[in-house]
Amino acid sequence: MSPARPCRWRPRGSNTTVPRLTPRGIAFLIAGAVLGALAYLFERPEVLSIAAMAVAAPLIALIVVASSRPHLRVARQLQPAVATEGEQVQVQVSVVGTARAAEWVERVPMTPGFAGPGRLRGISTTRPGSLGYRYWPSRRGWASVGPLIIEDRDPFALAVRVTNTRAVSTQLVIPTVTALTVGPMPGPSTEAGPQTARSRERADDDVVTREYRSGDALRRVHWRATARHGELMVRQEEPQAGPHARLIVDTQTVGYRDVALVRDPVTGRRTPDSASFEWSIRMAASTAVHLAERGYTVQLLSTAEGSAEGSAETTTEAPIAEGPVGDLLGELALAALGVRAGDLSEHGRNGSSPVVVIAGEPDDVTTQWMLAQRRTGAPALALLVGLAQAAPRLDGSVDADPVRSAFEREGWVVARVSVAHTPDEAWLALLGGSSTLRMPRG
Predict the structure, then answer these.
(1) CB–CB of 414/436 below 8 Å?
(2) What are the backbone dihedrals phi and psi of residue 370, each rounded to the nearest 5 degrees, phi first?
(3) Which of 159, 101, 153, 173 minimizes the C-alpha distance to 131?
(4) pLDDT of residue 193
(5) How confident is the model at residue 432 (pLDDT cuts 50, 70, 90)?
(6) Contact between residue 423 and residue 429 where contact means Cβ atoms under 8 Å apart
(7) Rounded to whole angstroms, how far apart are CA atoms 422 and 257?
(8) Are 42 and 72 in contact (CB under 8 A)?
(9) Are residues 149 and 164 in contact, defined by beta-carbon separation less than 8 angstroms?
(10) How far is CA 190 from CA 182, 195, 199, 240, in A?
(11) pTM (2 decimals)?
């Protein structure tokens, strides 16, 4: 992982609203007007002075708040720079400029959607301010931290001015990685020789990239090269050094029975979401790290052309994951459900490389493509998540799990699991050959 470092922010200038009365200030104004009317109605001039003070107080508060227009610039430091889903992120915010003491809140990608409120002391050119808080990112992908919102009030809270600093920091949130037992995957072939972490990193640096062209699969985007060049770059060829393992993740919407459209709290768009798919992504991340630690260079293949989050501008502003599988974790962080990719036939059998498939209920075309990725005799594992969908056989009988049966006929080791099982439990289920972990009730 990257060490802590300042995350770049988008300098769009602050957006300050016109000072306005608070509900308390409006109440004072109404009370003054009512008292003034009663004073004239009942001919009580002594009440007029009270009415005048009640009306004057919020108006004076408006003048006080309007006279101190804040001018602020904000920068953030996020630790770690690359976050992990569900794990703590420490945010340190530096504020420079001029502003009176005020309350602050900051938008974060976590329920209830903001950090704070807190108290920010007065800021001057010679005395910058700072604040800190923690948050736990709830979803993988690009996370936007900010903007910082300042509420400047008078001492009696009769008037307020809201300043949106509009400085947003972008952070990559990778899936949770679970340590896996050595389990069912054999170590790299001794003929290929051991591969150290340094040689794996060197092989990753040797990837040939080119500019993104219309029609290129987004799963081929090389995020590290994109960050360096400032525009989307894709892999032109895969690294060839050392023993390889193929990791295949089904990213088709039709491959998961629990897909539902949900509204994205950030963009407001409705996107497909699936608990089984999210489990598959976490399982794939854990498997990739496990295989890399055992000496494999891991090649990630997906089955759909999903919509990757962000753009070239976003990727240059956010640190990316580092290490032997840093790019792969970045790809998994941005993986999305979609329709079948048009280049499924592009990848054929690759020597005796081990193959790991993580899927839900892939259709027949996808299943056959997955089976074709393995050469006879090569280690092959398949983890299927979710309940199986029965289908009739040609002889009239019913196959309770046709996808598992297809893999087993070709000699794959298969396990059917549920989202309630941890990645390590699912991995260990493959040790005894083809099996089905008991599905939890409810």
Answers:
(1) no
(2) -60, -45
(3) 101
(4) 39
(5) low
(6) no
(7) 20
(8) no
(9) yes
(10) 17, 10, 16, 16
(11) 0.74
* 367/365 Cα distance (integer angstroms): 5
Averaged pLDDT for residues 415-438: 80
- If DSSP states are collapsed to H, E and C, what string results for the chain? CCCCEEECECCCCCEECCCEECHHHHHHHHHHHHHHHHHHHCCCHHHHHHHHHHHHHHHHHHHHHHCCCCEEEEEEEEECCCEECCCCEEEEEEEEEEECCEEEEEECCCCCCEEEEEEECCEECCECEEEEEEECCCCCEEEEECCEEEEEECCCCCEEEEEECCCCEEEEEECCCCCCCCCCCCCCCCCCCCCCHHHHHHHHHCCEEEECCCCCCHHHECHHHHHHHCCCEEEEECCCCCCEEEEEECCEHHHCCCCEEEECCCCCCEEEECHHHHHHHHHHHHHHHHHHHCCCEEEEEECEECCCCCCHHHHHHCCCCCCCCHHHHHHHHHCCCEEECCCHHHCCCCCCCCEEEEECCCCHHHHHHHHHCCCCCCCEEEEEECCCCCEECCCCCEECCHHHHHHHHCCCEEEEECCCCCHHHHHHHCCCCCEECCCCCC
How confident is the prediction for the chain on average, in pLDDT? 78
| pLDDT one-digit tens code per residue, 2-45 | 333 333 333 344 566 788 898 999 999 999 999 989 888 888 88
Q: Which residues contact 202 (CB under 8 A, 6 or more apart)?
A: 241
Separation of alpha carbons 426 and 419, rounded Å:
10
**Total residue length of the chain:** 442
Comparing 83-92, 133-142, 197-206, which segment has the lowest mean pLDDT?
197-206
Burial of 349 (0-12, 13-18, 19+ CB in 10 A): middle
pLDDT digits (tens, 9 = 90+) for 128-184: 888 889 989 888 888 888 888 888 888 888 998 888 888 888 888 999 999 998 877
Q: How many Å apart are CA 306 and CA 247, to the nearest integer? A: 17
Instruction: Write the CB contacts of 41 (distance below 8 Å, at least 6 apart in sequence).
Output: none
Q: Which residues lie below 8 Å from residue 67, measured CB to CB, with a gap of 6+?
A: none
CATH superfamily entry for domain 5-19+68-172: Immunoglobulins (2.60.40.10)
**Using CA atoms, how far apart are residues 267 and 270, in angstroms rounded to an integer?**
9
Residue 1: the pLDDT is: 37
The residue behind tokens 């953030």 is 76
Contacts of 367 (CB under 8 A, 6+ apart): 403, 406, 407
